[in-house]
Structure formats: C-alpha cells, structure tokens
Specification:
alpha/beta, seven-stranded antiparallel sheet, six-stranded mixed sheet, 16 helices, globular
Length: about 600
Amino acid sequence: MVLSFTHPIIMGVLWATILVSIATSMSTAEQSPLEFEAKAVLESGWWSGYHNISQRCEWHGISCNPAGSITKIDLSDRRLGGKIPPGIGYLSALEYLGLSNCDLSGELPPPLCNLEALFALFLSQNRLIGSIPSYIGNLEALESLDLSQNRLNGSIPSQIAMLYRLSYLNLTFNQLSGYVPNLYATKLLIVDNSNDCYTIYPDPFQGNKGLSPCMNSSVTNNAKNNKSPPYIEICLPIAIFSTFSILGCLFFSRFKANNKPVGGRPTKNGDICSIWNYDGKIAYEDIIAATEDFDFRYCIGVGGYGSVYRAQLPCGKVVALKKLHRLEAENPAFDKSFRNEIKFLTEIRHRNIVKLHGFCLHRRSMFLIYEYMEKGSLFYNLRDEVEAVEMDWTKRIEIIKGMAHALCYLHHDCTPPIVHRDISSNNVLLNSSFQVFVADFGTARMLDLDSSNHTILVGTRGYIAPELAYTMNVNEKCDVYSFGVVTLETLMGKHPEEVLSQLSSPSSLVSMKLIDVLDNRLPVLTSQLVAQNLVQVATLAFACLNQQPKLRPTMKEVCKEFLCRQTSLKVPLRMISLFQLMNNEMHIRESSETCRV
C-alpha cells in the first residue's frame, strides 16, 4: 500500500515531530547559557554538595570571566576518581583544564573537541585508556597538552600536527605505538634533523616502547620543504640566547658575589626582585632570557599553583623556577600561597628541605627560584618502571628517614613550630643521588601554641588526616599522618588507598602480609638487615596512621626510633601481617638503652 503525503498517519507523525521539536526548543530557550554551564559541571559529581548553580564561580577549582562563563577548571591532585564527565565539553569559554593526578579512568570523551578556546589541557598521572582521538586537531587554540603517565595506546593521530600553536607536548610513559607524526607546523623546538628524522627537546614521547622515532613519508618531506632550513630554526634561537647571556654578564657584573639574599629592591613599577647571587651575574633579565620569557619548551611540570620550569643561568647553574600563571596571579588565594612560600623558605634551612635561591614579585612575572632536582618528585619515580627499580630498598629507607628529619626540624626546631599541611609524594623531591627534599610550602602554617589553630582545609586528597573531615584544628599530628601515608606509598610503590580503607576495621589486616604489599618490582629480600629496616619503617608508618591523633608519635619520636638498634626478626618476613605491624607486636628494638641519642 502506498501512503500519500496527506494520509492521516503521515500527517500525525509530522505533527508529532513538529510539536516535540517546538517543546525541545522552548525547554532549551528557558535555560540560559550560564545555567547550562552550571548544570554541565554539576552533573560531573565533583561539586555535588553545591545546590545553588548560580554561584558556580565560587566553587572550588573554578574561575570565571566577567560575563560569568567558566574559563578555568583546576582540580589537580584531588583524586576524584571515575571518568571525565562529557559535560565539560560544553563549556564553550573554557581555556584551562587541569585534572592531573585525579585517579581518572576511561577514555577521553568526544565532547572535548568542542572546547575551541582551550589553550591548556593537563590530564597527566591518571589511568586513562584508549587511543588519542583524532578530534584533538579541532582544539586549534591549544598551546599545552599533557597526557603523560596514563595507559593510552594506539598511534598518535596525525591531526596533532594541525595544532600550530602547540609549544608544550608531553605524551611520555603511555603505551603508544606506530610512527611519530610530522610536527613541523607546531612551535615545538626541533633540536636535531637528518633527512626524514628529527628530535624534539625535551622528548615528549619517552617511555612509549612501541613508537618509532620518525615518519618516513612524502607528507613529512613536503612539510619540511615548506619550512625554513633546519639549521636556521635551530641556530638562530641559540645565537639569540647566547647574546642575551653575554649581555647579561656585562650589564650585571656590578653585583658582588655572595651567598646572602640581596635586599628586596624596588623596580620602576614598585615590584620586588630578590635573588641569592651565585657569581654576581644573575638578575631578572637573565631568568627571562634563560627561559625565553617562560616558554613552554622549558616547562617540566605543573603544580598545585603555577608551572615549574628548568633554566640554565649564564653562570652554568641549573635552577627550577615556579611561576604563577596569569590567571593564578590575579587570584588572591594563590598570591597568598606564593608569598607564604617565600616567607617560610627564606627563614628555614635544613639539608632535607628544598633550597630557595631567590624570588621575583614583578607585576608581569611572579616566580620562585629553587635548587634543581634532577630526579623530580617521589611520585614520578615510584611510577616510572626504570626509576622505581633503581630506587632500591636501601635508597627508599633513606628517603623515608630524610622526610622524617625534615618534618622533625619543622615541628621541633623552628620557633614557632611550622606545620607543612601538604605532605604528599608530589611534594617530596629527589636529586640525582636520590637524596630527599621536602618542597611546596605554599600552605604551610606557623603554630600558635596558645590558640586552637583553626583554618580552612588544605592538602592533597588521600594524604589528609581523617580528623580534618570534622574539625579544622590543625597541628603537627596532621603532618605525622601524611608522613605515614607517604612512607607506605614508598614501600608499596603506589598509593596505599586499599590499606588505608582497612584501618577502621583492623581485623581485616590479619590476612594481609607485609611481603605481599611491598613493591614487587624490586628483588626478593635476601638481607636480614634490610628486612629488619623494612619492618621498623612499616611499624612506624602504621603508628603514624593511628586514627586518634593523640596516639600518633611525634616526628622527634620517629627520628629517635631510627637511631635505635633493632633486634633480629623472630619470625620470617613472609609471616608478618599488617595487623601485627599495626599493633606493634614485632618489638623492633631491644630496649631504650640501645638508642644512640
């Protein structure tokens, strides 16, 4: 049977379709773009405690422009879990998305391709899977892309070469395979070129065993033919950099070499720049020249606030620079943390606390100058297969002891005592010899022993003491708990979230053996002394994780235990349970007389 266009059934279907369309349009029209944005982020579940969607610009981790549209989301180090909500892809004004180290899983959602204003995307240190989608090429404003330390596989899409503004790329330590696409159209620094191969510095593809170093194709050759000769692209920046370095040495040689901080000197804008000079030749202009005005090519990481850069100064010294982003510099909270870090690090000195070489409070650039740590964070080293194996049990025990000594100094040797408040594996740095340094004092707080020390909740999720969930009374025992978490993480090679979840019901730890939770990437223990040290460290870690703050040891007591001679284990290591460690049943030292005080 053939139905005509005027048949009642056809007409009914048409009218129904029209009515549904009108109803949908009316529903959408009733919802303003700003309300749509608020509901999109509310559906993520990350801000589920907020019911007034009109106040989304006051939610933690969100920044808005004057019109009220969301321009920045930064929830790094929050361990949110779950997948990246597709609703984020509908925030048309979003410029910065930071979700590093959030324990996210799943694939990159397709709606992300709608973020046409996005210039920075940081999704490192998660558990993302699947391939890098080809729609990445739609993000034309993208300048920084960090997908490192995930589980991404497949080939790198050729569309990534369409991101001509891209100056920072990090795809390290994934499971990518195939050829590296031609990236000559981007602003990534190409430092070597021979026929069809090139190298980008720093190497954004390290740790992907299935990747081939270059793509041999006509596309690559054509791209190269349309560019300036490689030696011009390489040599010109080097020549400019060298010129600036020489001029810096000539113009600023009037500064005398000393190891004391130069007094804060006002600039023409009334800002302050104070630097500990190595040889009398370091100045603000040297920092700008060494980093090419903080180009992303020199960026080695993104922290809780600001980015970290590597810079080699004219004198040859390599330093790390923490610089506030433009949006963060305008945020009073970040500005306060920045100045707080300067305050503490200019007043404290300890062999296991990162050294501050100088700072700059400039209207255009605010940055800190630190001692450079070649190995990076403890978090990174524990998750890198090569570095984790190199960091053997002896090194790990020394790292734990170094952390303890640093915290003991802050709590007991400083007047008034200092509480760090954000001890995590990301804020513990290692130099080339695996010597440990506690860093990031942006949230540190001096203790007023005559007050209750109430404050807002800060720190990294997964390391915060449980009592802070119902009280804001901060004391040194909060750091002690965080130290316990990092200690277990160092022994296990990963965050001990499974063990921590069992502390409220200790009986569940009876069946969990210490040998089974230790990092299995290291060889089986053969040394009796190392086994004794591991039992001692693990026992102290569980003491620090006591749910009752008053029952946790002080860091001075922890350090004293490290000086005590230990007895031989009365049972084999494989028989020791976490329950025994938690209840201190191992009797890790003979008597108080064996302590070398």
